[in-house]
Amino acid sequence: SSTPSQGLVRCHSHYHSTDWSNISAPDALIRQRKFSSWVRLSLLRSDFLENASLGLE
Q1: Residue (of 41, 57, 34) closest to 4 by Cα position
Q2: pLDDT per residue of the chain (57 residues) written in tens, 0 to 9
Q3: Cβ(46)–Cβ(5) under 8 Å?
Q4: Looking at the record's lineage, which domain of life comes first (predicted)?
C-alpha cells in the first residue's frame, strides 16, 4: 500500500519536472499556490492518519 508521503514525493517530482518557462507568470504563481496548499493539506492529513493509527494501538 502506498503511504501519503509516497504520493507526496511522486507529486513533488512531477511538480519539478513541469516546464515553468512556457507558463505565464500569473498562471505559474496560481499553480504554485495551489500546489503548496495541497502539500500542506496532505501533510496535515498524513499527520492525522499517523496520530489516528497510533491512537488505535
Answers
A1: 41
A2: 455 555 555 555 555 556 656 666 777 788 888 888 888 888 888 887 777 777 765
A3: yes
A4: Eukaryota
d(CA 19, CA 34): 17
Can you say how many angstroms the Cα of residue 8 is from the centroid of all Cα atoms in its chain?
5
Supply 6's cell numbers.
Answer: 509516497
Give the three cell numbers for residue 24: 505565464
pLDDT of residue 22: 63
Measured distance CA(44)–CA(17) in Å, rounded: 25
Tell me which DSSP letter residue 34 carries. H
pTM beyond 0.70: no
Q: How far apart are the first and last CA of the chain?
A: 19
